[in-house]
């Protein structure tokens, strides 16, 4: 099965309208009575409460970008430090830059463009079945054909 890694970096700074009910902060659970609040991950935050879990820097000030992984909220620098190295594409063996969407299969990572059957170039969608054989990505058809040629396909009556 195919997994996609996706990042959602977006912080919005909103000014609070005086006539609206104060929003609760997702960090400290108190009401936000400041003039400005931050909106990120579909939640509202005090400017002081949206912080990097690693270095405590205020993310509202750091280029308005945040990164999440495994329920951690991180600044770009810490995200890169912890998760930035995605490694080399198992198909074309070129480096995959951090923050690019990748396909994962077992321990291998692939560029999105490289993740296709290596015999017939068929692309896979999320949820499609694919097979790994000798570290080659194969579609079901080519995988079964390969088994047949090698003569250990399951007996079909
Ligand atoms: Zn707060
Ligand atoms: Zn940080
Ligand atoms: Zn590649
Ligand atoms: Zn194929």
From TrEMBL:
Write down the superkingdom of origin.
Answer: Eukaryota
Q: Name one GO molecular function term.
A: DNA-binding transcription factor binding
Q: Which SUPFAM superfamilies match?
A: Glucocorticoid receptor-like (DNA-binding domain)
- UniProt cross-references to Pfam families, sorted A to Z: LIM (PF00412)
What Gene Ontology cellular-component terms does the record carry?
A: nucleus
In this protein, which residues make up the domain named LIM zinc-binding?
Answer: 23-85, 87-149
InterPro entries per record:
LMO_RBTN_TF, Znf_LIM
Q: Which UniProt keywords apply?
A: LIM domain, Metal-binding, Repeat, Zinc
Q: Name one GO biological process term.
A: positive regulation of transcription by RNA polymerase II
Q: What is this protein called?
A: LIM domain only protein 3
Organism of origin: Zosterops lateralis melanops
